[in-house]
Every structure is written in structure tokens, then in C-alpha cells.
Write a structure and sequence with these properties.
K_chnl_volt-dep_bsu_KCNAB-rel, NADP_OxRdtase_dom, 8-stranded parallel β-barrel, oxidoreductase, NAD(P)_OxRdtase_dom_sf, alpha/beta, 333 residues
Length: 333
């Protein structure tokens, strides 16, 4: 395993992180989830990412039980706040009330006294940004949170938060957690340049595009049974935009590149995200331990410029680059 600094902070994290969105407490039974976490630990992964909303808070519980007994100082545990975790109007968003109540629930479910990184899971257009940042700063001063970050924020939203933090003496954002893959590159035009200037590291999710970049979805063929695309608990909604024959054909044409490098297609896809120097870690998920072992082989892989060009030539205009695709709800969900 290779390790990278989280932005300009002094925190080092494993460049392959393990995430449990759509798996723990949902798609995967707890025994299988625990086996995946053990595999991640065995492979040298120290960074684990979750969120209060995943599987209706059950994902945090499963991860907490799976990590019980591990040396806490040897782990980096990340979680998030924003999406609804209850029926009330204050059980969502980034108000001080919800942040304070949510972090206490996350700590209880995870079985820890603190989280290494606490992330605003979307931008809250209904809460003053000063209120959110002050609440985050208070959590840092209380020792419940060591670092703060954001997920799926636009460049101008991050820039506003940095300005307020500097003016008010709050802890600055050190991380951004966006979707990023060979196919989805919307952060490259605005978020990455800002982050490079301001010392923010990307912790990217869906580096294999919900499984599309593994090559298991074939043009003109039925969806594989049990795959993300057949999941009625949310997975199918995310992957639908990729399931057209033109794009799937282009993805199949990446296989010779992976073969030439002695990599699986998943390894190639994950390694591709890690070539971006602003990326601190790529988050992988798994429903089976062998998937973890395969994905971790992307750590430390270096792709030459000619390989990157071959990938770009194959994918062509199938790549999504529009920065406007990063959108938070106009009102709290």
C-alpha cells in the first residue's frame, strides 16, 4: 500500500480507501461485509469512508463492528453529514443542530470517540455557511473531529468556505470527495485547480464508474445477474447513464490497454484516478473480499503519458467534463 497526504494537511491516508456506500447494511450481509473489511486491513488499507445516511445509518454500525478491536490510532475513519437521517425537518442539512446531533450519532454507531475527517455531504443552500463552518470548527476544538472536508461541492462553494474560514479563524477544509473516473471528469476544470492552490486533496468515489469500467457490462447483452445495474436499492439509478452500447463498446476497447500493462480493467481504472496529483485517495467498495484484493493492486501503479493518451483516444467524447454537473439540492431533501 502507498500513502499520500490529505491535501496540505499532515494526515497521511492509504491511497486506496475502503468505502461502504450501497454495500454494508444494504446489498451485503454483515458476515460478508466484515470479511471485506478484514481483507482491506490485510491488504494495508487504513482509511475507511462511510456516511450517516448510508443504509439508513446501518452502514456506520456495520463498519464500527467490523473495525472493533483494531488499533484506533492506526486507522483513519471518515464520515459525512447532510442527507436525512430521520423524519423531522431538522434531521437533515448542515444546521448547527443537525451537525451536532449527527456527529454524536455517528460516533456512537462507529464505536469511536472521534472521526479523523468529517465531511459536508452536499452544500446546504438553506443554512448560512458561517453557521455550518462554526459548528465544524467547534467539533474540531472539542476533539470529536480532527479534520473537515466537503463532498460534491462546486468550486465557488469551496472558495466561499475558505474565505469565511480565513476571516473567522476557523479550521480550513482539507478535502473534497467528488465522483471521479475516466468517464466522469467534471472536477478537472474548476475544483482541481482551486484545490491545488488551496491545499485541498481529492478523495474520489466511484473510480470504476459503478462497475462499468470493469468491463463486465457488454454491449447488446443482458445485465449480469446480481450486478450494481440490477440493484433496486439505489445502485441501478447511478449506473443507468452509462448503459448504452456506444459507451460500453468503448470500455471494451480499454481491455487491450489493461492487458498490455498486466492489469485488470478495474485496476487500470483506479490507477488512472491516482495519476492525478491532486487525488489523495480513491475509494473502492466491495461485496466480496477478492474484489478488495484485486482493487488494491492499483496502488503504486504509474501510467505513462502514452497510456493516458491511448485511454483518452478510446473514450473520446464519451467522457463527461461539464463542471455544472456538480449540483446540490436547492432545498433540503
Amino acid at each position: 500500500m502507498e500513502f499520500r497526504y490529505l491535501g496540505r494537511s499532515g494526515l497521511k491516508i492509504s491511497e486506496i480507501a475502503y468505502g461502504n456506500w450501497l454495500t454494508h447494511g444494504s446489498q451485503v450481509e454483515e458476515d460478508a461485509a466484515r470479511a471485506c473489511v478484514r481483507a482491506a486491513l490485510d491488504e494495508g488499507i487504513t482509511t475507511f469512508d462511510t456516511a450517516d445516511v448510508y443504509a439508513g445509518t446501518r452502514a456506520e454500525e456495520v463498519l464500527g463492528r467490523a473495525l472493533k478491536g483494531q488499533r484506533r490510532e492506526g486507522l483513519e475513519i471518515f464520515t459525512k453529514v447532510y442527507w436525512p437521517t430521520g423524519p423531522g425537518p431538522n434531521d437533515r442539512g448542515l444546521s448547527r443542530k443537525h451537525i451536532m446531533e449527527s456527529v454524536n450519532g455517528s460516533l456512537r454507531r462507529l464505536g469511536t470517540d472521534y472521526v479523523d475527517l468529517y465531511q459536508a455531504h452536499r452544500f446546504d443552500n438553506e443554512t448560512p455557511l458561517e453557521e455550518t463552518l462554526r459548528a465544524f470548527d467547534d467539533l474540531v476544538r472539542q476533539g470529536k473531529v480532527l479534520y473537515v472536508g466537503v463532498s460534491e461541492w462546486r468550486a465557488e462553494e469551496i472558495e466561499r468556505a475558505l474565505k469565511i474560514a480565513d476571516e473567522m479563524g476557523f479550521d480550513r477544509i482539507v478535502s473534497s470527495q467528488p465522483q471521479y473516473s475516466m468517464l466522469w471528469r467534471v472536477i478537472e476544470e474548476e475544483v482541481v485547480p482551486l484545490s491545488e492552490r488551496e491545499g485541498i486533496g481529492q478523495i474520489v468515489w466511484s473510480p470504476i464508474a459503478q462497475g462499468v469500467l470493469t468491463g463486465k457490462y457488454k454491449p447488446g447483452q443482458p445485465l449480469p445477474e446480481g450486478s450494481r445495474a440490477t440493484d433496486d436499492k439505489g445502485g441501478a439509478d447511478m449506473i443507468r447513464r452509462y448503459l448504452n452500447d456506444d459507451l460500453l463498446t468503448r470500455v471494451q476497447n480499454l481491455k487491450p490497454i489493461a492487458d498490455d500493462l498486466g492489469l485488470s480493467m478495474a485496476q487500470l481504472a483506479i490507477a488512472w484516478t491516482l495519476q492525478n496529483p491532486n487525488v489523495s485517495a480513491a475509494i473502492v467498495g466491495a461485496s466480496r473480499p477478492e474484489q478488495v484484493a484485486d482493487n488494491v493492486r492499483a496502488a503504486g501503479v504509474k501510467l505513462d503519458a502514452d497510456v493516458l493518451k491511448r485511454i483518452d483516444d478510446v473514450l473520446g467524447d464519451a467522457v463527461i467534463r461539464d463542471a455544472a454537473k456538480t449540483v446540490s439540492p436547492r432545498t433540503r431533501p
